[in-house]
Amino acid sequence: MSKDTLTITDNRTGKQYEIPIEHNAIRTADLRQIKTSVEDAGLVGYDPALTNTATCKSKITCIVGDKGILRYRGYPIEELAEKSNYLETAYLIVKGELPDRKHFEMWKQNVTIHSMVHENIKKFVDEFRYDAHPMGILVGTVGALSTFYPDAKDIFDLESRRLQTRRLIGKLPTLAAFAYRHSRGLPYVYPDNDLSYTGNFLSMLFKMTELKYQPNPVLERALDVLFILHADHEQNCSTNALRSVASSQVDAYSAVAAAVAALYGPLHGGANEAVIRMLMEIGSVKRIPEYIKKFKSGEGRLMGFGHRVYKNYDPRAKIIKRVADEVFQVTGRNPLIDIALELERIALEDDYFVSRKLYPNVDFYSGIIYQAMGFPVTMFPVLFAIPRTSGWMAQWAELVRDPEQKITRPRQIYIGEGARSYVPIAQRPQPDMREDAVSESI
Ligand code: ACO
After folding, report:
1. Whose CA is nearest to atom 11 of ligand 1?
2. 305: Cβ below 6 Å to ligand 1?
3. For the chain, how long is the longest CA-to-CA vector?
């Protein structure tokens, strides 16, 4: 008869252990009982990049990597991208269900009224260097919000959590737009609450002397679809950073600032910026084979390709390809798209990429669209952080409510020196002899 357990034999001691399996997972804490002696701290799981470790049970986003499936709360991303809008999708992600008309109107109102930021935030942004990366500004300003809302410390209060969620979703576009205007030396534009979520964002970015900014409806919808596609992606690097930091019971602004920082990296939210730089460096379709050769030999990576979870075409990349065509009808064709399409065609026929299941991810085409819409590359990860805020807040609320969660504190396998005595500086080896010994750690 089959049993939902795993039997382990420890060949060091000959002892057997029976460990429960739940949801196709064992609890690595159950390994701790496996010891060779009473002093032994017990067996640990070693998983340096958490490649095969679940850190939570979640009801928010489902990814089936082998099949290229992404669903928010059960709804396929393709349907949401076609029929929903970002604010409705954000509601779905945060609250778990699609809203009825009345609740959607209330949600829209509740998010919109939080689009303003304290005037001191404006001064704070002003003090960044003229060429500060907007993502650096975003990390700083989101973190600074915690000082404006000390009530956010009350993380176990439902109303407080709801308020911080509406504030963050409402304010992120404003902070992002201020960061952009600062880098351009332009005056900040205050939110226009008559416009849609993305329409208002475009207004805060691009409004010049006109009394009222009218967003182009195609670009407004394209950005909205891109926001839907980026709203959540289960336990990715930034969400894991958010959960880890939030597990200390810090306020949501500090935790989201950590998530934004994680998103800044070129292997995560910075990848679409890296894609554009790569495409510009390649420069022409003719040079693609030369670059493919480089990537295969480990000299750089084909940015925008590969994913920790998707071992098939990223479903978001398919939708983005369609959005690109619509955007180019308005903006004119971004010449980088031809290099990208050919790069994709060649890579998907090459055994190196096929055998490693490396397909285009969401970042492969998103940067090309953003560039065509007039965004500088430094704004790309910012455009990712805005919609991801709804996902982060849903993940945060799930963490806070989960009785199984504790402060995140992984184990390590110590491989350093054994105990040794302090040596006074005068008695230590000469600098030239020590050089090699210290260089490893810096
Ligand atoms: N180009 C060339 N080779 C690659 C690439 C790539 N883009 N991605 C992975 N590989 C190769 C690796 O060299 C490795 O080969 P090997 O087995 O011969 O050593 C194999 O494929 C597996 O790669 P890993 O690095 O182990 O895969 P991992 O799951 O750790 O990394 C990641 C996933 C970070 C996304 C990786 O594919 C990558 O660096 N891609 C480029 C950056 C990128 O597009 N990031 C965006 C991710 S999506 C997002 O964050 C929204």
Report:
1. 356
2. yes
3. 80
Residue 374 backbone phi and psi in degrees, to 5: 100, 10
Q: Name the residue with the closest Cα to ligand 1, atom 18.
A: 356
Structural tokens at position 40: 């032994």
> Is the beta carbon of 362 within 6 A of some atom in ligand 1?
yes
C-beta of 21 in contact with ligand 1 (< 6 A): no
Structure tokens at 119: 């005037």
The encoded tokens of residue 258 equal 């950590």
Check if the beta carbon of residue 235 is closer than 8 Å to that of residue 388: no
CA distance 154 to 161: 8
pLDDT, tens only, 197-236: 999 999 999 999 999 999 999 999 999 999 999 999 999 9
The HSE-up count of residue 229 (CA atoms within 13 Å, CB side) is 26
CA distance 231 to 103: 20
- For residue 188, give the nearest of 125, 237, 95, 94 by alpha carbon: 125
- From the list 185, 138, 153, 112, the residue with the least C-alpha distance to 384 is 138
| CB 387 near ligand 1, within 6 Å | no
Place of tokens 């953003």: 370
Give pTM, 2 decimals.
0.92
Residues 163-195 have pLDDT tens digits of 999 999 999 999 999 999 999 999 999 999 999
**Amino acid at position 178, single letter:** F
Active site residues: 268, 307, 363
* d(C-alpha 383, C-alpha 227), whole Å: 8
Token pair of 438 as six digits: 């210290």
Which single residue is written with the structure tokens 């030396």?
185
